[in-house]
């Protein structure tokens, strides 16, 4: 399974899949066909009597079982457009005639970008407000978290380590021993922005320089590559998302990845005076949703006890609904105590954190 989309900016890309829970499937359109579909303003989504249309950057296998369960329970068909990238560009190009009802993506920054582009609309729902903590939703109701993923530490099994802080990532103890993906990946810029919200720009710059000095190899690849490289002896610790460990350890990623996971221990790091960083997947109702009622109905279902259980079982993510249990593999990592900083408090620091990544040449490896 490939890692989920990343990069600083979304660029227009080919449509990967369009599926409907009533059995309609189209796969691997060429860019030419996508352009033609755009001219048709929504021809890629079949018209059904009661339906809801999702545009999402999430991998099909991660959400389709949950959408199928929604259709089975409600009779509402879910037509899903899976976009590798270019979500903002796609919906903007379609304008008021867009068939999109729900926009779903990963990383709170990507959700904010949708709001800033005017592509969402506010939703008032007692169900959503009761299920999703205030720190994990937009104050105006433009987006709601659906699941969480902790930013954790993978460590070699033979390391005597039972706790870790994000502040320790730049310690000289880890010179040449750390693996991490690109500093410009949203998972990392969110972490860096959180650090800046706590400590300010100059301390963050120094911290990033220390992390860069600790790298065992170029900052690249995906989170699962950190486990691979620990198993290969390239590094001793890696920064990664919690759910990737579940995907590997369960065997969902194949026998090779399961072997990587068996060579690491997972540490839930915290800030020295705080908790663990948690980023999200989330969704909002599209600004021109033609099926608004069904869109709200689906969002409410996605945070229900049953759907949140499916999220945990299928994706190894942390439910946002406190009534749903974490998958046993993830529960085995330890009890999660999220940091007290809300996503909206971190937001103002996201752009500057990204700029600092380039200023310290974070992604340039210097042996």
From TrEMBL:
Binding site for Fe cation: 243-244
Domain of life: Bacteria
Keyword set, alphabetical order: Iron, Metal-binding, Signal
Keyword Glycosyltransferase on entry: no
Pfam families with a match to the protein in the record: SBP_bac_6 (PF13343)
Molecular function, one GO term: metal ion binding
An annotated GO cellular component: outer membrane-bounded periplasmic space
Name assigned to this protein: Iron(III) transport system substrate-binding protein
Keyword rRNA-binding recorded: no
Listed SUPFAM superfamilies: Periplasmic binding protein-like II (SSF53850)
Family statement drawn from the similarity comment of this UniProt entry: Belongs to the bacterial solute-binding protein 1 family.
């Amino acid at each position: 399974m490939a890692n989920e989309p990343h990069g600083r900016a979304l660029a227009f890309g080919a449509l990967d899949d369009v599926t409907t829970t009533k059995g309609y499937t189209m796969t691997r359109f060429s860019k030419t066909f996508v352009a033609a579909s755009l001219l048709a303003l929504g021809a890629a989504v079949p018209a059904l009597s009661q339906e809801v249309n999702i545009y999402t950057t999430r991998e099909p296998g991660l959400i389709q079982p949950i959408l199928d369960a929604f259709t089975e329970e409600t009779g509402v068909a879910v037509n899903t457009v899976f976009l590798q990238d270019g979500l903002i560009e796609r919906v903007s190009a379609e304008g008021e005639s867009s068939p999109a009802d729900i926009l779903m993506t990963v990383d709170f920054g990507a959700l904010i970008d949708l709001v800033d582009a005017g592509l969402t609309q506010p939703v008032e729902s007692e169900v959503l407000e009761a299920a999703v903590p205030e720190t994990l939703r937009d104050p105006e109701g433009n987006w709601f978290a659906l699941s969480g993923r902790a930013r954790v530490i993978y460590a070699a099994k033979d390391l005597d380590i039972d706790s870790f802080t994000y502040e320790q990532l730049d310690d000289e103890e880890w010179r040449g021993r750390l693996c991490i993906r690109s500093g410009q990946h949203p998972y990392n810029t969110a972490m860096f922005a959180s650090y800046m919200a706590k400590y300010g720009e100059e301390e963050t710059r120094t911290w990033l320089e220390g992390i860069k000095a600790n790298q065992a190899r170029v900052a690249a690849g995906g989170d699962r590559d950190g486990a691979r490289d620990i198993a290969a002896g390239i590094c001793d610790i890696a920064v990664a998302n919690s759910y990737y460990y579940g995907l590997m350890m369960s065997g969902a990623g194949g026998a090779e990845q399961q072997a990587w996971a068996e060579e690491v221990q997972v540490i839930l790091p915290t800030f020295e005076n705080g908790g663990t960083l948690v980023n999200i997947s989330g969704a909002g109702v599209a600004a021109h949703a033609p099926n608004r009622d069904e869109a709200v109905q689906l969002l409410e279902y996605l945070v229900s006890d049953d759907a949140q259980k499916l999220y945990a079982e299928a994706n190894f993510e942390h439910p946002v609904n406190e009534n749903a249990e974490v998958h046993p593999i993830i529960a085995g990592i330890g009890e999660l105590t999220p940091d007290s900083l809300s996503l909206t408090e971190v937001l103002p620091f996201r752009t500057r954190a990204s700029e600092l990544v380039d200023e310290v040449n974070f992604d340039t490896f210097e042996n």
